[in-house]
Amino acid sequence: MIEAGTQEKGDALVIIEESDKREVLVESKIMAIYGEAIRKTVEEVTAGLVAKITVKDYGALDWVIRARLEAAIRKFKEGVKE
Amino acid sequence: MKLRRTRLYVPGNNPHLVENVGLYNADAVILDLEDSVPIPQKFDARILVKYSLQHVDFGRSEKWVRINGITTSYWKDDLREVLPYCQVINLPKVESYEDMEMVDAEMKAIEEELKISPREVVPIIETVRGLMNAREIAKHPRVTALAWGGEDLTADLGIPRKKALILEYVRAEIVFAAKANGKQALDTVYSNIRDEEGLFEYAQRARYMGFDGIGVIHPNQIEIVHKAFRPTEDEIEDAKKIIEAAELAEKEGKGVISLNGRMIDPPVVERARKILQFAEVE
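The joint structure predicted for all components is written out below.
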């Protein structure tokens, strides 16, 4: 399992776990307003990735979610260790 | 030369703080990948800064990134990720001309590969060795300004920062090293964000010491520093007269500029131009 992002205001936390099937979970306090838009971004950026992808949104703008997704995917694929 | 009275440091891994940087009117905004980013967040921060540079409105502020120092394993990855999207690389703990050459080579490779224009470097002098080599470092063509950092330097000297008596000498050395090479000199930050009077005095002192600007750590500091760097009305009036005299001499094809019977030397004209730039007079 890898993580990217934080739980701070204006940020998002992306978690990617190994799995046999593709699964996308989105959690947001403002799910009713932005849930669909966030899901669309997640689907677009992670297209083709077979894993369990969880995005916890803390009021992040679209570019922030994209940045956290890219970081998470690259760490997941490249096995980046800090 | 660009106005660099204020350069606002913003932690690179905090999107909430980065979002509004364009509203603050700083001359430059530095997205920081170094000291404000804990080691486990270095990778995420680098990607976030890349996106910030592309998606956040910086207003009139120059886009700078402080990357990690060349003794770390991060600096090359930092450069590769952010260089295409920023204007200036702020490079910590530079100690020699050779350090600059090493970073220059890495930047050149990226710039040639991506066919982008050469970016500037503002090295931060924060070790005794760096200070001793500041005059050489400032000669590097990539360098457009010299900055310095007190915390690491006083630690390197083994003296407490607040009681350090040597810092005025350090400041003078940074100004001489920069100015001897036609570069800007940038003073360090004033860290008490509540003391507005102290900040104004600090910034004005930096100005009269020969610095072109100081670092700021809170948006509230920006306007105060700009005010401190604003020349007085008398200075502005004198500068206007000097520039008018210089323009008149040029128009009349005279080699010598004179004002009220007094000869004006080229450095005086240059200073007048700088005063008007600081006054933001066209």
